[in-house]
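agent> fetching stored inputs for the N-carbamoyl-L-aspartate docking request
agent> found them:
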Amino acid sequence: MRHLMSPLDFTTEELDKLFDLAEDISANPKKYAHACDGKIMATCFYEPSTRTRLSFESAMIRLGGQVLGFSDGSNSSAAKGESVSDTIRVISCYADICAMRHPKEGAPMVAAEKSGIPVINAGDGGHQHPTQTLTDLLTIRSLKKRLDNLTIGLCGDLKFGRTVHSLIHALTRYKGIRFVFISPEELKVPDYITDMLKEKNVPYKEVMHLEEVMPTLDLLYMTRVQKERFFNEEDYVRLKDFYILDSAKMELAGKDMLILHPLPRVNEISVELDDDPRAVYFKQAQYGVYVRMALILTLLGLAE
Ligand code: NCD
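agent> prediction call returned; pasting tokens
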């Protein structure tokens, strides 16, 4: 039995197979409409989410399967003190696969150890968000036609943003990747990530202003400041509008520079950019459903 805890759980060859499947699903959705008939997915979300939970549920329903679960830990037995290990043992009796989001780093891994069904980490605290990374990689591969030889800007909350941490780890496995980290001093990428980049000889630079690097980027991954992970409101208020990407800044960008964002957006991308063909964040959300369909099929052993 296989779980998905980190984007590195799949080799790059396995990821290519997964993305080929996701692209086939997007081109031929009818072919897969009954692939999960009779199967049940549990979505156990101990932390708020719109996209991730609903995209998992949409993915399972589009495969002909059914879904059950909870969208708030306070509605579940966790409120009575039940451990995730006990919860997953019980859920294993009710469902065939589980997507779990938890505010505590590592909780889905603890669950996976005791689980009788495949567990997908749907985001654990500020740590990892592997299915967002699969979504991001599929978006880049489909629209840029490659995952190597790219200069990638990541902008915003690089300290607390788990989508950023997962994506950096996943991209270091491809050749010719260069990172440009754009953040205020307080929201820089954690040292364990820059240490890993140094060890792997992956080039990166850290800057504070978007303008100076815009012309050099193949894609720009914008993120919101992660309000819920701040210790005090004052710091959040001071930093939340540090970056606002608008048409004036986009004039400095190349004509093929894609803008990605895991969403939800707060103020960091002006709505005036939504019709710019380089703004692909809503397309990215669509790719998120196809890649989760491919992942469910793969983990249930139904991909062939
Ligand atoms: C992200 C998350 O939950 O980490 N959202 C998502 O899953 N698309 C990004 C965020 O909340 O900022």
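agent> quick read of the result: The chain is about 35% helix and 15% strand.
agent> awaiting further instructions
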